[in-house]
Design goal:
43 strands, disordered N terminus, Lipocalin, five-stranded mixed beta sheet, globular, four-stranded antiparallel beta sheet, Cytochrome Bc1 Complex, Chain D, domain 2
Length: about 700
């Protein structure tokens, strides 16, 4: 018996820990961000802190088009599945990078960025790849890349299906892969952020048939919880929409709980037509994954007028809290906070207080008198700025001080006509790349430190537009906020000039962008064909500029009393941040205690480094991957470097100059006993060059 006991003990230990050492988990990266918990973590350890300096390029794949690639590749059974900047889905041999098949949307239904595809299989061996193009969700045969005809119609269904009649022609796409639970796929959606936004309801579809399974109304209907947090009949979607999940979700498959972070209601910066807290905008929702029933929610921003969307999928973690093991859900925010809740009850593990905030003075607006403010963990991005925090290296320091003094400032300071400093900015704090968490409860999150300026102006009255041609009116109402009244754009903030666009693009290309959007720009699907034609004629300089004498909004697009002057970063004349470094950081936070393990400046400007200026950090997009080999891999920065850090102490161990900036989250996997790390290099953001490479690294 004594001889048998040690053997039984070993068996018991192996059984207890079996799920953590599942062969599939240890080899593949078969879901977005590594798994349903979205923890970006791999048990692979062939590449470790001792040999990471030996990494070499194992293979590279050139996508058939160039531009921004945000995709996190998935790897299943030796095949890598990804999507190009122009939404062509491809399957590669994960050991060699050789293309196996490629599928391009034959309907050319959308131009957008995509963060990847979704893989699904069942016990019968049916394997599918699901992805979106425009408002369509496609199902492809994972072996052949051909559409599955039994899914919807000709292998596709519309993401507008469960949104109601009001969304029939509105802008609806998805940048982020859907979340699988059993035979369901629950889809994120990106919508317009103006008064023409569709409702952001959460929809689940049957993966085999494409039929709508359930809908959760993020803008509640009569009799539903939260209906009284909006004006009556807001759900009819006449001039309020949004409250959508665009960043992706996580799912606890054992418990059948879906965790859904939502964004702001639209219009983003004025809510006079949506008085109230506005549930379920800006919420972390826990839903029954089978039915869509609400289990609990937490709203982080009440009546959002700052575009404070939850920017990333939550992380499902287990921590030691007050001496107990707690299954928790952690959510990063644009404001640079981490929220940690009990997965079952929704109770916060760390104190969050409601604090009084300054109220809006814009006529018609009613901002909420208090807002949540987490007390622990400490924010991973600065929360306030003074004159001492302005860029000491800028030649424009005095003028920056003048601008800084003119702006409204403070925690959740409301939008204003004088200009309000938004810091952390519209892009975080945390961004869509998401955070990594290891089994010890250490979260690794990269952060932006960029200030933006939000300025509100009166929307032109109908009489003020009467002297303009039809195309000029359309441009003024829908385009000038980002591209400027003179069409010069704001290249420093990422908005291109439209001056002389006829020398650079064709009419068909511009018409397609107006209709379907591209990158940060939504498509204006509710504009009538004659309005689009007039707009393109205006942009191409061949529309006569005489007044029509009539201004008619045709009842299609609600006009709200204020608009913004655009998404403007607070920069100096050279395009550098107006605030002092660091402009980007990489953080390790112990979520068991809420204390920091380490914090690094992340990224650099090579030209400033050459002048002897210490490392400044930079804006960054895309997240990290953490491995059992003690490593953290991340690209994300404008300097186009791929880096590996010691995850325990933050020491930089290895870096590689990519062919283009890698604004994406990497993946790691193993094929034939060899571990690989792979990153998509698409560039274009932050003024970087375009790219089309998928690059995989391995040990020699």
């Amino acid at each position: 018996m004594f001889r048998i006991f040690p053997f039984l003990l070993i068996i018991a230990v192996l059984v207890a820990f079996y799920p953590r050492f599942d062969e599939k988990t240890n080899v593949d990266w078969d879901e977005y961000l590594g798994g349903p918990d979205r923890n970006h973590y791999s048990l692979l350890n062939q590449i470790d802190t001792n040999n990471v300096t030996q990494l070499k390029v194992a293979w590279s794949y050139a996508a058939p088009d160039t531009g921004q690639m945000q995709m996190n590749p998935i790897i299943v059974k030796g095949k890598l599945y990804g999507i190009s900047s122009a939404l062509q889905v491809f399957a590669l041999d994960a050991a060699t990078g050789q293309e196996i098949w490629r599928f391009g949307d034959p309907f050319k239904s959308g131009v957008s960025t995509s963060r990847g595809v979704t893989y699904w299989t069942n016990q019968q061996g049916d394997e599918r790849i699901l992805f979106t193009s425009g408002h369509w969700l496609y199902a492809l045969n994972a072996t052949t890349g051909k559409p599955i005809d039994s899914f919807g119609q000709a292998g596709r269904i519309s993401l507008r299906t469960g949104l109601g009649e009001s969304a029939k022609e509105k802008f609806v796409i998805s940048n982020t892969p859907g979340t699988v639970f059993e035979n369901l796929i629950i889809m994120p959606m990106r919508l317009s952020e103006g008064a023409d936004a569709a409702p952001g309801h959460v929809q689940a579809f049957d993966i085999q048939t494409g039929k709508l399974a359930w809908v959760f109304h993020t803008i509640p209907q009569p009799g539903e919880y939260g209906y009284d947090t909006w004006p009556k009949n807001t759900w009819k979607n006449t001039d309020v929409g949004g409250a959508n999940n665009w960043a992706g979700m996580a799912v606890d498959r054992q418990r059948g709980i879906l965790f859904v972070p939502t964004g702001s209601a639209a219009f983003d910066f004025y809510g006079g037509n949506r008085k109230g807290k506005n549930l379920f905008a800006n919420c972390l929702l826990a839903l029954d994954a089978r039915t869509g029933k609400r289990l609990w929610h937490y709203q982080f921003v009440h009546h959002d007028v700052w575009d404070r969307d939850f920017p990333s999928p939550p992380n499902l973690i287990t921590v030691n809290h007050n001496g107990k093991r707690v299954d928790a859900v952690a959510q990063t925010t644009k404001s640079g906070h981490v929220l940690v809740f009990d997965r079952l009850t929704g109770k916060s593990l760390f104190p969050i207080k409601e604090v009084a905030v300054e109220q809006s003075k814009l006529p018609g607006e009613s901002t909420w008198p208090t807002q949540p403010q987490p007390t622990k963990p400490a924010a991973f991005a600065r929360q306030s700025l003074t004159e001492k925090d302005l860029n000491p290296y800028s030649k424009d320091h005095d003028s920056l001080v003048t601008v800084f003094k003119s702006l409204k400032k403070g925690y959740m300071a409301p939008p204003s006509k004088q200009g309000t400093l938004i810091f952390p900015g519209y892009d975080g704090g945390a961004e869509w790349g998401g955070a990594a968490v290891d089994p010890n409860g250490i979260m690794y999150v990269n952060s932006n430190e960029m200030a933006w300026v939000l300025t509100m102006v009166d929307t032109p009255k109908q009489s003020e537009l009467a002297h303009l041609s039809e195309g000029a009116k359309t441009y003024t109402l829908y385009c000038s906020a980002c591209h400027g009244p003179e069409r010069k754009g704001n290249t420093k903030s990422g908005y291109p000039s439209l001056v002389d666009i006829q020398l650079r693009q064709s009419r068909d290309y511009v018409k397609n962008i107006v209709s379907n959007g591209k990158g940060m720009m939504p498509g204006f699907t509710t504009l009538k064909p004659e309005e689009k034609a007039a707009l393109v004629a205006f942009l191409f300089g061949d529309e006569k500029q005489e007044a029509t004498g009539v201004v008619n909004n045709k009842g299609k697009n609600p006009v709200i009393p204020y608009k913004t002057t655009g998404y403007n970063k607070f920069l100096d004349s050279q395009g550098y941040p107006a605030i002092a470094p660091p402009w980007g950081t990489l953080n390790a936070i112990n979520l068991n205690t809420g204390e920091y393990v380490w914090k690094n400046v992340f990224g650099e400007y090579p030209e400033l480094k050459a002048k002897g200026i210490p490392q400044t950090g930079s804006e960054n997009y895309g997240g990290p991957v953490v491995t059992a080999g003690g490593l953290l891999f991340i690209a994300a920065t404008r300097d186009a470097k791929f880096r590996a850090y010691n995850s325990k102490n933050g020491k930089l161990l290895w870096e590689y100059q990519l062919p283009a900036a890698g604004f994406a989250t990497p993946s790691t996997y193993q094929v034939n006993g060899r571990q690989y790390v792979v990153i998509a290099c698409g560039g274009t953001k932050l003024g970087t060059n375009k790219g089309n490479q998928v690059v995989a690294f391995a040990l020699p």
